[in-house]
Amino acid sequence: MRKELLNWLIGFLVVALLWQICSLLFNPTHLPSPITVFKSIYINIDLHLKNLGQTAIEATLGIIISALISVLIILLIGTFPKIESIIYPFIILIKSMLVTLYLYQFSF
């Protein structure tokens, strides 16, 4: 247990040190230093906790809704095999759009 905690602490310090070094190379608005981030978290802790709760609720609801929609689509495809030929192109379209949007966000 003690060795795991020490390994975790060393890993955290290495990441924080690399983050600090990288923050010196970039504009502070694009990559703020860890000290700036932790100060902001400490100063605005009430706001962050409020937003954390709201984000957790929204993420949980999103997962539940997407799981229900997926089960519905699977049941439709399993019950009516012809629906698969109708729905499958849209599934491929959505999958490719997600990859495209993910890559697009890093193009700026």
Features:
mainly alpha, 86% helix, 0% strand, single chain, 108 residues
Report on the structure:
It is a single chain. The chain is an all-alpha fold. It has helices at residues 2-25, 34-43, 45-79, 81-104. The chain is elongated, with a radius of gyration of 22 Å. It starts with a helix and ends with a helix. The model has no long low-confidence stretch (mean pLDDT 90).
> Whole-number average pLDDT?
90
Radius of gyration from CA coordinates: 22 Å
The percentage helix is over 70%
Which regions contain 5 or more consecutive residues with pLDDT less than 50? none
Structural class, by secondary structure, is mainly alpha
Distance between the termini: 43 Å
Anisotropy-based shape:
elongated
Task: Output the helix-strand order.
Answer: HHHH
Largest sheet: none
Number of DSSP helical runs:
4
Strand content: under 5%
Number of DSSP-assigned strands: 0
Layout of helices and strands:
Blueprint: H1 2-25, H2 34-43, H3 45-79, H4 81-104
Brief digest:
The protein has 108 residues and is mostly helical.
